[in-house]
Specification:
Radius of gyration: 17 Å
CATH architecture of the largest domain: 2-Layer Sandwich
Strand order of the largest sheet: 1-2-3-7-6-5-4
CATH superfamily of the largest domain: Bira Bifunctional Protein, Domain 2
Helix content: 10-25%
Number of strands: 12
Bound molecules: biotin
Number of domains: 2
Length: about 230
């Protein structure tokens, strides 16, 4: 896989989408810093110090329902972080947590033309190295204390784990996701696509979150946002 390395760039996801429209169908963009990092739901993503990468994935390389893409990528990143000795967990659907704080976010996007998906972009932002986080996030985010060599090794480990998850039996990915979930068995709030509260019961075969609502109805969340309710 070709690696495009940038010292600083507005957003590797935005650049990857531009490259796809110019005909690129494979590769990974890596930036040391982003000046306009983007998160889910149009939010900004603080990108001062870390691994900020976007993988361009042709639909041909994705062996499962694209709905499962973000979950599969979360499994790959969590495994890579764990392989470096950290105890990480997955907060449905796109965040990796370390001791109750977010250390990584994932943003999957599709680039289409005339109704056809040309390619997917999976953006991964991992906080690495000590940095002054802005006041509005400093209580809820974490960073991995790695030196430059360890950071580079983690980047390559993430790439390896992504290659692995793309050929792995889906059942084993799902079983890992369930094992590492910091959400299953907890009372949660959900908002965005649907709004309410309930108990996170399980994941369905595409990584959707099965919730028993407070009205005792089972629903499956496939998008939107959740938060774990404080006891
Ligand atoms: C989220 O937490 O909502 C997802 C954050 C995704 C951030 C990554 S960093 C690399 C890539 N480029 C971006 O602009 N965003 C993603």
């Amino acid at each position: 896989m070709k690696i495009y390395h940038y010292e600083s760039i507005p957003s590797t996801n935005a650049e990857a989408k531009k490259m796809i429209l110019e005909g690129v169908r494979d590769g990974v963009l890596l930036a040391e810093h982003q000046s306009a990092g983007r998160g889910r739901l149009g939010r900004s993503f603080f990108s001062e110090n870390g691994i900020f990468m976007s993988i361009i994935l042709s639909p041909k390389r994705i062996p499962f329902d694209p709905e499962f893409l973000t979950s599969a990528m979360a499994a790959a990143v969590c495994r890579a972080i764990e392989a470096k000795g950290f105890k990480a967990g997955i907060k449905w659907v796109n965040d990796i947590y370390l001791e109750g704080k977010k250390v990584c976010g994932i943003l999957s996007e599709a680039v289409s033309m005339g109704g056809d998906i040309l390619s997917y972009v999976v953006g991964i932002g991992i906080n690495v190295g000590e940095v002054e986080f802005p006041d509005n996030i400093k209580e809820i985010v974490a960073f991995l204390p790695l030196n430059e060599d360890e950071k580079e090794a983690l980047f390559f480990c993430v790439l390896d784990e992504i290659e692995h998850v793309l050929v792995e039996n889906k059942k084993s990915v799902l079983s890992y996701l369930k094992q590492k979930s910091v959400v299953l068995g907890k009372e949660i709030r959900f908002f965005g696509v649907q709004n309410g509260e309930g108990l996170a019961l399980d994941l369905d075969e595409n990584g959707g979150l099965i919730i028993q609502t407070t009205e005792k109805e089972n629903i499956i969340l496939t998008g939107g946002e959740i938060s774990v309710r404080a006891k």
